[in-house]
Specification:
The complex is a heterodimer.
Chain A (H helix, E strand, L loop, with lengths): L1 E2 L9 H26 L9 H31 L6 H24 L4 H25 L7 H29 L10 H29 L6 H24 L7 H23 L8 H11 L2 H15 L5 H37 L17 H24 L2 H27 L2
Helix pairs in contact in A: 1-2, 1-3, 1-11, 1-13, 2-3, 2-4, 2-11, 3-4, 4-5, 5-6, 6-7, 6-8, 6-11, 7-8, 8-10, 9-11, 10-11, 11-12, 11-13, 12-13
Chain B lengths: L3 E2 L2 H11 L3 E2 L4 E2 L6 E7 L4 E6 L9 H15 L4 E9 L9 H8 L1
Parallel strand pairs in B: 1-4, 5-6
Antiparallel strand pairs in B: 2-3, 4-5
Helix pairs in contact in B: 1-2
Classes of the chains: A mainly alpha, B alpha/beta.
Chain lengths: 422, 107
Amino acid sequence: MDSAQHINTATRAAVVKPFFNYAALAFLVALVLLIIKSFSFPSHYFEPGLLTVTHIMALGWGTMIVMGSVYQLIPVLAEQALYSEKLAVASFVFTATGIPLLSYGFYTFNMGAIMQWGAILVNAGLLLFLWNVVATAGKKDFKEIHSSFIVSAVIWLQLTALIGLLLVFNFTHNIFTKDSLYYLSFHAHLGIAGWFLLLVTGVSSRLIPMFLISKYTNNNLLWQVFYLIQSALIIFIILFLCRVNNYFFYIPAALVIIALIRLGKFLKLSYQKRLRKRVDGPVRLSVTAIALMALPLLAILIILTGVLSDKNMATAIINYGFLIFFGWVTLIILGMTFKTLPFIIWNEQFRNYTGSRALPQPGDLYHKKLFNYMVWLYIPGFFMFSLGIVMHIKILLVTASCILLLSGCCYAVNILLMQRRR
Amino acid sequence: MNLISNDEKFAADAIEVLKYVIDPEIGLNIIDLGLVYQLDIDKEALKIYCTMTLTTRFCPMGDVIREGTQRALAMKFREYEIIITLVFDPPWSSNRISEEGRLFLNQ
């Protein structure tokens, strides 16, 4: 038997928890704004309220919580401690300060100094995040599939944020040849596919089999998924910059669909070869979220077909964004929070007592009933709101957004109670 | 349970306390999970040697499990020095889970 070192790699809970708490607050703010917007729901996506909600969901909610999780996960994958906890704290401070400024700029549709400073601070925070992740994972062999997903996703995030920064300045300084609206889909898709899709794919393909205690491993299949998504992104960029006919955009869409079918196969086989027969609520919710990736893909095919027929697809585009940010991105966060945060809290509270007495398990740290209420409210609220967008029914939008806010409150209360557990 | 030891009585006592060390990720103790490969005692040198593994090299709870093992053995065998050796060769496989462990996971 060869002996091996296993160094203490855990990032301190004090570094990670602020990301989770900030994200929960941002989620609630976005849901309140959604209620306000529901009373006079816009007919175009380039609208102050919708841009604000989208950026709070993408940055304040999705990105912040993922940053916290990556600071926890990347040292485990790289088998070494985080490069710098101070950098992680600095990345939190910059990003957390930049997001409200940026959002305020969108809400008031004032593209001046406040919004520009917001964009600069967000970029600075994300740059520190990128530095920390690359410096931590950099010494590790990059052929490790999950690290590759995470590192490349973080690079795409930085690129998305940089383009966002240039778009903010383009409102006042004519940086690009066309107006910022023209580049919106470019900026959005780099973020959606480059950041969220790559990251969710990489993290879920690592964590879901781990939580199921699955005997199934197939890195070749995951590499296929990795290269399919990367190819889709590169082809998308080339097509966009060359301003080719819209027909060609079916190519990256098709590549992403094939990637997700391959990912679905991987998760299905992991599920079938699992040792843990009883699957808990958070894992079920995460798997549901991945299945719901099919909805925005269906929506983008409808939008592409509509655009080719010169139809006004504004409502479909709003629904597409909703299906992404309030659909699979949010659902996987809602699920994975209750698998990752309990470990972080448990590690902080109980690790020094292992082996000395019977201890609660990480899964015992959150309120199961509150978790169930959250799920039972969120899923119907989500479908009702999506239907409300498509059918233009105000009462459905208002009711659904209130239900979503109630679900968000269940989430926030649950994670706060979890952190008070002793 | 495929665990080897140079002293059956000692191994039985050690196993009893090591059942308190739970892999928090799975909720199962390290004995039924099959993480402990070998438990040896040197009564003259007052040393206990525990050779063990983790379910995966990237186990986020690896340090916790190792510390818990050290603590559990140190509390039971107070006069002994505990030496834990972590190995990944041979790697852990689910075939090492005991019948009791499988029943727990199937609940």
